[in-house]
Amino acid sequence: MLRIYASELRALLHETSEYPQIETGGSLLGLWSVNGNPTVFLATRPGPGSQRSATHFVQDAAFHNQVERRLLESDGIQSLGLWHSHHSLGLHELSGGDRRRTQDAARRSRRARSCDLLTYFSGSSTQAGGEISVKPYVYTDAAAGVLAPTQLVVLDGMSPIRAAMLRAGGDAHLSPALRGAPDTWAGPWRSADSTAALAAQEEDQPVQERHRRSLFGRRPKEATVETSAGAPAGAPAANSVEWEELLERHVAPLLGGVDQAGLECEAEPIAEGRALQVLLRTKTRTATRVLYVAWDGRQAVVFRDTGAWANRTESVEYVRENEAIALPRALDGAIRGLTTAR
Ligand SMILES: [Zn+2]
Questions:
Q1: What is the 299 CA–ligand 1 centroid distance (Å)?
Q2: Which domains does the chain have, with CATH numbers?
Q3: Pair 60, 50: CB distance under 8 Å
Q4: Which residue did the predictor score with more confidence, 106 or 286?
Q5: For a Cys staple, 310 with which of 53, 118, 179, 222, CB 3.0–4.6 Å?
Q6: How far does the centroid of ligand 1 lie from the alpha carbon of residue 114, in Å?
Q7: CB atoms within 10 A of CB 96
Q8: How far is the CA of 306 from the centre of ligand 1 (A)?
Q9: Closest Cα partner for 40 from 94, 97, 127, 115?
Q10: Distance (Å) from CA 95 to ligand 1 centroid
């Protein structure tokens, strides 16, 4: 469970709504309950030195540390984690890169717990005023990347921390990054539990690790783990799937216009194993392409394909609704075995 004051949820929803084409985000500060549930007392916007593009968000570390130091002194609250937006990128879960960033930060800071909040435009709407989804994640062992199923609980009204800031003379002069949402703003939003997806993900963890491959480049260390424990019944043993070769030969040619030198690829099961999310990204992080691949009963298909480039403001949908693209037959066996619902 992740608790957040309505004033803080509104601040991050408003920030998300203002940037439908790039990733934005901020810091989450608060306290942990005795049962290990975070309560967010302050959600900031990006600090002045943050990096934001269509494909990534990096919070301003100096700003983050300064706010944390100040609030620890004045109110005894600390950093809980970060929130960020996947705008209309088509990625409705944390990416492998997002989870690795949290793991790295937890190891560096030696903090056992962390949380993440993800926002994204519901459906494929990128219109101003479009509905925004919010999905909370709690890490019970952040350094190891262990997530717990998480629900969002909204606490009514104004956070006491924000109220104190306003009493102290308004937050606008402190930093634009501490601004709340305008009182009149009421953009539509919904919360999405990470419960179902993450329960499945936990079950899928060994499979997911094995399927993660850095293609066209160096493999991450965990890709060398090759045990068949946890593989779905009837699935090909993961180490018998030549992902590099299959994707290089059959998927990479679909990516017209993307520089394929040093392209990285991660394939992860989603939707309780019924589909694969294939994230392709240039080493320089300038372009990201997300393919959703599944077995449609007859053949392996790409049913959604979105892309975004750091130097362009829009993200692009390549597959029209209800017009899945068939993949080469050579991929049928692997995709069928890896995506059949269990
Ligand atoms: Zn992300």
A1: 30
A2: 2-193 (3.40.140.10), 197-339 (no CATH)
A3: yes
A4: 106
A5: 53
A6: 15
A7: 20
A8: 14
A9: 115
A10: 5
Please give the distance, rounded to the nearest whole angstrom, from the Cα atom of residue 102 to the centre of ligand 1. Answer: 11
State in Å: Cα 189 to ligand 1 middle: 19
pLDDT in tens, 126-164: 565 688 999 999 999 999 888 888 899 999 999 999 999
pTM beyond 0.85, yes or no: no
**CA atoms of 327 and 313, how far apart (whole Å):** 29
Class of residue 230 by CB neighbours under 10 A (exposed 0-12, middle 13-18, buried 19+) = middle
CB 79, CB 56: distance < 8 Å? no
Residue 316: both structure tokens together:
């692009």
pLDDT at 78 over 50: yes
Ligand 1 centre to CA of 240 (Å) is: 30
Number of DSSP helices (H) and strands (E) in the chain, helices first: 7, 17
Lowest mean pLDDT among 166-175, 217-226, 231-240, 244-253: 217-226
CA-based end-to-end distance of the chain: 27
How far apart are the CA of 116 and the centre of ligand 1, in A?
10
Taking the centre of ligand 1 as the mean of its atom positions, its distance from the CA of residue 56, in whole angstroms, is 7
Say what the pLDDT of residue 119 is: 96
pLDDT at 250 over 80: no
Query: Which residue has tokens 């104004």?
Result: 158
Q: How far apart are CA 140 and CA 114, in angstroms?
A: 7
Estimate to the nearest angstrom the gap between the alpha carbon of 162 and the chain centroid: 27
Assign residue 291 a region (left: φ > 0; alpha: ψ between -120 and 50; beta: otherwise). beta
C-alpha 312/C-alpha 216 separation (Å) is: 24
Q: What angle do CA 83, 88, 93 make, to 5 degrees?
A: 50
